[in-house]
Amino acid sequence: MTSDKLHLDTLVIHAGQEPDPATGAIMTPIYQTSTFVQSAPGEHKGYEYSRSGNPTRAALEACIAGIENAKYGLAFGSGLAAIDCVLRHFNPGDHIIVGNDVYGGTYRLFERVYARYGLKFTWVNLADLEAVKAAFTPQTRLLWLETPTNPLLSLADLRALADSAPQTVLVAVDNTFASPALQQPLNFGADIVMHSSTKYLGGHSDAVGGLLALNDDQLYDDLKFLQNAVGSVPGPMDCFLVLRGIKTLTVRMERHSANALQIARYLEDHHAVRQVLYPGLESHPQHDLAKRQMKGFGGMISIILDSPEAAKRMVSRTRLFALAESLGGVESLIEHPYSMTHASTATSPIAVPPALVRLSVGIEHIDDLIADLRQALE
Ligand SMILES: *Cc1c(COP(=O)(O)O)cnc(C)c1O
After folding, report:
1. Judgement on whether residues 283 and 176 belong to the same structural domain of the protein
2. Which end of the chain has fewer CB atoms < 10 Å from its terminal CB, N or C?
């Protein structure tokens, strides 16, 4: 399939996927097998052992490459396993610059695991371009970006940040919140895109997975080597589920974004809500950047209530919005980051506000969602 000239709405359905040559099956089969028969030692049909390669996974890897406008894709057993693969590329003493508002698990992996192996991290406010530029040292090898951030929904200017990085520094973007339907970071000069496919790409809260997409041949060889050497690969069933989820990505993101914008406006007018953080609101400090950089504003909203008690009360009272970690599924979720997804940062410099509530707005009918939030805030 030549992906060059196809639109994203088409690529989400077809990238990396051809009818099965053996049977004509229109959907990529779940090749639930650990190994592949060889006709003579070393003579095989492209697959030897499923840690090294599996046809269902290969289709997903080609698919993420297609929809992120990349040459290569790599699939992992979780989003964190994908981040872990990137970090293993570096050596003790190497320096990494990270945005100071990131997914809690990213913070934990960097500071509690990789700091022990001699990687050095500097946490900066990505909205402050001068602060980022000042953080580069001769040892800096990676700039790790998340935009919009989890959970404060602040944005990083991808073009400006990629341009600010010296040639010797790789720029990686966690694109989980936006998905390629809203922004394709490689087009802004990033070197690596990372996804937790558990979220919008899978889209149905039924599989945990991670993906990388990139263009550089040598970097791909290095990361593919690590993927096999370390072995943190997804099973074929999970790859199938993510492939199926991606087929509806662009239509889902349209509805997620439309619902979230209406809810953000509703909450902005609600007396019990102190602040609404949503890039689609005119009141968001980076609304202009959001309009430049993103094709839509996504389904994630964070709000700040009057107190931690009010936040916990609200998340306990919703009926349609289920109280749960994770995000990006068709169903609406609500959570309290301080005690849930971001508990691992609670005593750190990047702790989130205790009165913060995060909503993952699903694709249900908008009136039902607003009615649920209204009664929860009563
Ligand atoms: C969930 C998430 C991750 C981690 O992905 P897992 O699939 O849970 O390992 C990384 N980054 C962001 C922004 C996330 O939301």
Report:
1. no
2. C
